[in-house]
């Protein structure tokens, strides 16, 4: 086959590659998923054509044209991958930890609601068995303490159970986030409900001399899982507060948009916490390991999550403040607005609005 016939046979492929590369160079996000896959396929095919021409035809004009096409396509493909990798790294080193640090006060309030209600419920039922009997019948208490509570963690296959737990936990976090749209009332209800359930079961197990079983089964996964629910609750509380009191330096719409954007950043990061907690609950909690070892695994998982946030969050917040030369003792709401440019683009993929300075 001569050069002219080879060009005629493959011209359509090269033309289509040029079209996709040109569109990607003008607007990198313009190509659909199918078009991106087509671009990759045509790049590989044209690279093979270039290799064939170099070996069999040695036509310098054709080799030069194909080399330019392959180089342009490579730049588009690997440039897109590099941007995606930078966005992923930025999410874990800036976006997520910064958003969590900014929510520190709301996290404290969320923890007070959930853990406070759990502690209050536990103390109440532990000191008032009659109230516990009204809530849960003595017969049901005995069943739960003797085998149902422990059996729950081994009632299904590990993989199926892990998927179920992870899905449920993510749904709880999304419900807590969505609860912010009710001015935070639904979020508060979710936190108090989870705290009540935790306290009631804890009191039940203590009343029936099964405290060791309770703590040995709840702590390995619960340390990280409950912490994630608390942080998710903080997202809903902040969104609810933005509705009620957006502040003088931004409109209610701006406040809600900013809090929702940062809330989504947190929930996306929390999905990883929930996945890890789910695997611990499915594989470690019901295992035959000594309780101390299982609890240590839970402690290490929570410590890793907390250390990740502390390793990057405060530094990202300090950088956000220094960029605008703000007062380091200003309110958290102003911190959020000024640091928004670091977190919004990671999730939304768009430039963040310029935050107004505090008066």
UniProtKB/TrEMBL annotation:
Q: Name the segments for region: Disordered.
A: 337-359
Transmembrane residues, as ranges? 84-101, 107-125, 174-198, 218-244, 264-285, 291-312
- What UniProt keywords apply to this chain's record, in alphabetical order? Membrane, Transmembrane, Transmembrane helix
Pfam families the record matches: SpoIIM (PF01944)
Name by which UniProt lists this protein:
Integral membrane protein
Q: Which organism is it from?
A: Candidatus Neomicrothrix parvicella RN1
Its lineage opens with: Bacteria, Bacillati, Actinomycetota, Acidimicrobiia, Acidimicrobiales
